[in-house]
Amino acid sequence: MPRRLVWLCLSLALAPVQAGEIWKCQQGNQVRYSDQPCPAQGDTLPARALQPNVVAAELRASGAASSGTRLAGNVCPEQVEIAAMESRATASSLGPAEQQFFKGEIARARQCRQGRVRYSASDWALSRQAQADQFRPGAEAEARQRAEAMHQAAARASGLRSAPAAAGASSPAGASR
Q: Of 48, 97, 126, 142, which has the most beta carbons under 10 Å away?
């Protein structure tokens, strides 16, 4: 048994990764994605760089429910996106302020998933842009300020006094973390 597992892992690791066409097929009330053309008719999806949030968005669009307690109308990053944020937070090219920013975003994403703060899709789009800006010299501080203002607004809209953040990572709205 372990020998089969080794061969399987080895064959998967050595298999070439190919990006081909993906077909979106409507079958009754269900949507099916395939690398083969649809039996009746379907749409070819455009090639794009898949990110963790794309998978979650496709699941929500197809009506698949994700686990976890959520506030009605609350949009939160999926667990796979939070894991990607954790990976980026440890990048050696980031300084202490940028790493602290990522820790705060991770904490807020988790609090969102716990239903403690309500966010919209545009809120997390702003957060994702601010995360990307942490790798652009000169754009980091302003991006952190925009994200902090968004979190403060979300906290107020959720009935909280201030935006939730990582323990020991709270800072005034305009300060860089």
A: 126
